[in-house]
Specification:
By secondary structure, the chain is mainly beta. It has a single domain (4-153), classed as Jelly Rolls. The chain is 6% helix and 52% strand. The strands form two sheets. A five-stranded antiparallel sheet has the order 2-1-10-5-8, with helices on one face. A five-stranded antiparallel sheet has the order 3-4-9-6-7, with no helix packed on it. A hairpin with a 4-residue loop joins strand 3 (45-47) and strand 4 (52-54). The longest helix is centred in the N-terminal third of the chain and has 10 residues, at 3-12. The termini are far apart. The relative contact order is 0.31.
């Protein structure tokens, strides 16, 4: 089945601290932030077009699952950078260098998963940026590109 739908079904049955979001993301429209395109869950978190806004302070687990598609094989390495922003400031980033192998075929795929556990205040804004959004795979696996936030506890 669809992994994204499986996670959504599981999350609906997980007892959270009354705050959770699980939304599909896609390429940015007018900025470098990924667009939030489909609400799966938005419970006590405000889901806007490019960011999630926290309504209850506490420790949150933020995660992002993204699939990339490189349509043309290249011999030069490509650096993929994912950044979690809190109030438009980088709070966590991951850099992954994608190198084409000698066995490189026409199309190449890569999946990146990032986790971040942090304390958030009321009205904190969460967003995600990519340095190469053009490589985000929205054709083969559009439903698999997701941003999730779970309130883990009230305090650190």
């Amino acid at each position: 089945g669809n992994t994204s739908e499986d996670y959504l079904r599981i999350l609906r049955n997980v007892p959270t601290q009354r705050a959770a979001a699980y939304v599909r993301v896609s390429n940015p429209v007018n900025s470098s932030k990924l667009s939030l395109v489909e609400k799966g869950i938005c419970e006590d978190i405000q889901c806007k077009s490019e960011e999630l806004v926290i309504r209850k302070q506490g420790v949150y687990l933020i995660y992002c699952h993204l699939n990339f598609h490189f349509p043309n094989c290249s011999n030069s390495p490509t650096d993929l950078k994912i950044e979690f922003l809190v109030n438009d400031k980088v709070d966590r980033q991951t850099l992954s260098t994608w190198c084409a192998s000698e066995m490189c075929q026409e199309k190449t795929f890569k999946t990146l998963f990032q986790l971040h556990l942090t304390y958030l205040n009321v009205k904190d804004r969460i967003s995600v940026t990519l340095n190469h959004p053009k490589f985000l795979n929205e054709i083969s696996l559009p439903n698999e590109n997701v941003l999730g936030v779970l309130r883990y506890s009230d305090e650190m």
